[in-house]
């Protein structure tokens, strides 16, 4: 978590505080003393940084400053900033832009660079999935790369979740995102299909299912547009057919046994095929028929 704090504070004005709600509500830590500790440990320092101040100015303000020094005012923002830095002495810039910023030392930059996965975990955090306390005590090998570290975290999380199917659903989303970002598209496809299966099984939401909740198109128990877009991208990139996708889905059905299913494996394959071929009328009719088999007030999950 302290690595995350370093990532957040770098290049921020010294008025910046680690007061975001997620520190206490999500991670259950108190970072109030960390900024002082970072400076004592030599991973963070404060300095006047006119280059950051210039970057924070609008293009209009930069051109006004250029006119003051009788400099050319045309060009993109980066060119305007470079022109000012090349022309105006550093001491003058520091006098005109005296605001101090937090900056990482070389040691701080090295720590951040070696732990880029921390930002990924923070961005995709779902409460209760990754046990950060256990991860801190695990003493992982130092030579693990980002993907191997994330894989370790997700495997450990899956062992802890067991039969918590809503959390398993989120875990599969994390597996997909990890694999996708690391260009492991076979793994990404399997994780995506697992997400679809848990959705259609009625296990992702963790709430009782009623006839009303099966109403198309507002139902949550469907193949979301996001899945369709990602599957289409995989199919286009790797020249996969609809049959390739449905065959892979059938293999995933055989690989993981679910405690109960809203739709049978056969029905899921049918919905997946109709989604990939954009047969919306057939999907609507299917949900309409499925909805009629369950009274509105009857919970089935």
Automatic annotation (TrEMBL):
Pfam families: SAP (PF02037)
Record protein name field: SAP domain-containing protein
Domain of life where this protein originates: Bacteria
Residue span(s) of domain SAP: 54-88
């Amino acid at each position: 978590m302290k690595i995350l704090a370093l990532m957040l504070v770098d290049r921020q004005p010294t008025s910046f505080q680690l007061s975001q709600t997620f520190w206490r509500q999500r991670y259950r830590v108190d970072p109030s003393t960390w900024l002082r500790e970072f400076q004592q440990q030599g991973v963070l320092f404060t300095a006047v940084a006119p280059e950051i101040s210039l970057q924070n100015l609008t293009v209009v303000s930069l051109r006004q400053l250029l006119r003051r020094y009788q400099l050319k005012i045309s060009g993109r923002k980066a060119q305007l900033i470079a022109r000012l830095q090349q022309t105006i002495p550093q001491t003058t810039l520091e006098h005109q832009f005296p605001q101090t910023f937090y900056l990482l030392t070389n040691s701080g930059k090295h720590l951040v660079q070696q732990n880029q996965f921390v930002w990924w975990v923070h961005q995709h955090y779902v409460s209760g999935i990754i046990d950060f306390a256990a991860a801190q005590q695990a003493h992982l090998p130092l030579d693990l790369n980002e993907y191997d570290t994330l894989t370790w975290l997700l495997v450990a999380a899956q062992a802890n979740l067991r039969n918590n199917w809503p959390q398993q659903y989120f875990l599969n989303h994390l597996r997909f995102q990890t694999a996708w970002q690391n260009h492991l598209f076979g793994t990404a496809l399997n994780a995506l299909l697992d997400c679809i299966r848990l959705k259609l099984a009625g296990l992702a939401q963790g709430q009782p299912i009623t006839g009303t909740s099966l109403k198309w198109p507002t139902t949550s128990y469907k193949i979301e547009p996001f899945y369709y877009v990602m599957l289409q991208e995989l199919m286009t990139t790797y020249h996969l057919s609809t049959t390739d996708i449905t065959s892979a889905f059938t293999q995933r059905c055989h690989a993981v046994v679910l405690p109960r299913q809203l739709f049978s494996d056969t029905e899921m394959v049918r919905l997946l095929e109709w989604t990939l071929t954009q047969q919306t009328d057939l999907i609507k009719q299917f949900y309409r028929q499925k909805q009629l088999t369950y009274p509105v007030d009857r919970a089935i999950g």
